[in-house]
Amino acid sequence: MLKTTLLKATQAGAKVLQEYFNGTFTVSHKSTVNDLVTEADKAAEAAIIDTIRQDYPDHQILSEEIGEIRRDSTVKWIIDPIDGTVNFAHGIPICCVSIGVEQDGEMIMGAVYNPLMNELFFAQKGFGATLNDRKISVSQKTSIANAFMVTGFPYHFPEGQPNNALDTLQRFVQQGLPVRRLGSAAIDLCWVACGRFDAFWEHHLNAWDSAAGFLIVQEAGGKVTDFAGNAYSPYQPHILATNGHLHQDMLNELNRI
Ligand code: IPD
Ligand code: CA
Ligand code: CA
Questions:
Q1: Which residue has the least CA distance to atom 11 on ligand 1?
Q2: Ligand 1 touching residue 184 (CB < 6 A)
Q3: Ligand 1 test: best mutation among 200, 202, 209, most atoms within 8 Å of CB?
Q4: Tens digits of residue pLDDT in 157-211
Q5: In the chain, fewer beta carbons within 10 Å around the N or the C end?
Q6: Residue 217 Cα to ligand 1 middle (Å)
Q7: 3-state secondary structure 181-234
């Protein structure tokens, strides 16, 4: 039942995304001029929440645009109606709906769907991860020296604070390593899960960016922690996701001053 609702809600959001993609829609900004929200984000969010509410009126919700809807329930739906909004607003088809389901503080299910590439990633705790219903697993690379990585950056770098995000990127790029920036943390995580990338790291993510993708990586055999190697929590902002083999070496790199 939970899975059916999760997939229905994901489809409902994705339908909105498809309808608006490359069309005309209003765009406004949030924390900075480049931190965008579109009419489609709000419409997709409404469609997702309506769908969940039909089956589970009493569950908690944490969703990017409307925030938190508290209820007396052990289940919380963590929603990013469009992850990759800047891509979406510019007609770049690297964006998705991302929905994670948390129960008693543990991620138990997640779906990330990019309808523009027709790629639906899904995971259920203990049951593995799939891409369009086919089982996926992380890559087998064991050395950073030939790893293919992806990262992302926050929208602002407060003055006076060390900008570790750029320092780390610079170190990898100077070693001649291929590093990508796709613009959707949820897709970054899923592409680690299916072995396209070997590692992903990003500073300052929100729960809705990573909740579903975390479980998909974990169920595909990968590892996700913070930059100190602590177990993943959606409520802490620094994420390292790898195929597992590279994890300790990546932690060392991220913590190298
Ligand atoms: C953003 C994307 C991007 C990441 C940003 C996120 P949004 O989410 O995941 O890849 O670098 O930190 O805010 O704004 O498109 O939902
Ligand atoms: Ca996001
Ligand atoms: Ca978003």
A1: 152
A2: yes
A3: 209
A4: 766 555 677 888 999 999 999 999 999 999 999 999 999 999 999 999 999 999 9
A5: C
A6: 18
A7: CCCCHHHHHHHHHCCCCCEEEECCCCHHHHHHHHHHHHHCCCEEECCCCCECCC
Ligand 1 site, residue 154, Cβ cutoff 6 A: yes
Q: Does the beta carbon of 41 lie inside 6 Å of ligand 1?
A: no
Fold held by 2-135: Fructose-1,6-Bisphosphatase; Chain A, domain 1 (3.30.540)
One of 3.30.1700.10, 3.40.190.80, 3.40.190.290, 1.20.1250.20 is the CATH number of 144-254, namely: 3.40.190.80
Q: What's the confidence (pLDDT) of residue 211?
A: 98
Query: Does the beta carbon of 189 lie inside 6 Å of ligand 1?
Result: no
Residues of the chain with CATH 3.40.190.80: 144-254
In the chain, the amino acid numbered 81 is P
208 alpha carbon – ligand 2 mean position (Å): 6
pTM, two decimal places: 0.97
Q: What is the pLDDT of residue 165?
A: 79
Q: Where in the chain is the domain with CATH 3.30.540.10?
A: 2-135
